Amino acid sequence: MANAVPPFEQWRAFAIHLLTASGAFFAFMALIAAAERRWVAVFAWLGLALFIDGIDGPLARKANIKALLPNWSGDLLDSIIDYATFVMIPAVALYLSGLIGEPWSGVAAGMIVVSAAIYYADTRMKTKDNYFRGFPVAWNMVVFAFFAIRPTEWVAFGFVVVCTIATFLPIKFLHPVRVKQLRGANLAVVAAWSVFGFVGLIDGFDLAEWTRWGLAATSLYLFSIGGIMQLIDRLRGRSD
Fold first, then answer.
1. 113-149 exposure pattern, b = at least 16 Cβ within 10 A, e = fewer
2. Packing angle of the helix pair 139-149, 183-202 (nearest 10 deg)
3. Which residues of 7-25 are buried (b: 16+ CB within 10 A; e: fewer)?
């Protein structure tokens, strides 16, 4: 009994699980907004969910939550919330908006939800150096970029196909917080992407050219930097 965890410590740890679970409420609100075709509201709610997803992991690790609450799986809870906010609701928004035209918006949405479900079951999701192995189903960011940048229908559909295929390839994709390589630059680009995205929401997706190009450039960096660093490491003879 001497090693029993004080109830206060357990409740404080459980509060972190509740913080993670609050993403389910944001997902619910985003789904309602999507049904009402309020696209700015959809991505505002998803943005809040993304913020929570960015802070709950470090809090959980700092609190040693797995030791304090061994009967509760934070990883499983996080995956449930992520599938809703990263995958399902962006796919719904893509389908309902018709951004890729008919019937291709529906085809693209179907590809998104099926490939992402398989990805979440892959136990090789993370590499030893904390990159994602394969495209990490960050469809919330991809579909947001579609709304903001407004590529042609075939460019958007082609990008969905590329991301779907990349889900199953051993290509590294950036985890902007946990990857140590170029961490300062990565975090700076994430901050810039967030600013451009916030401006896009404020402008109701009616973006000025500088905002559109800034969002496109930062999105391209976040999408490709993992694969670029993987290629550089291999050319230098380093293993993954």
1. bebbeebeeeeeeebebebbbbbbbbbbbbbbbbbbb
2. 50
3. eeeeeebeebbeebeebee
Cis peptide before 70 (omega within 30 of 0): no
Burial of 195 (0-12, 13-18, 19+ CB in 10 A): middle
Residues of the chain with pLDDT under 50: 1-2
Count CB-CB contacts under 10 A for residue 91: 25
Q: In terms of Cα–Cα distance, which of 76, 110, 77, 87 is closest to 31?
A: 87
Other C-beta atoms lying within 10 Å of the C-beta of residue 98 = 13
Q: Are strands 132-133 and 172-173 parallel, antiparallel or unpaired?
A: antiparallel
pLDDT of the residue at 2: 45
**pTM of the predicted model over 0.70:** yes
Strands (E), the chain: 132-133, 172-173
Q: Rounded distance, CA 180 to CA 226, Å?
A: 11
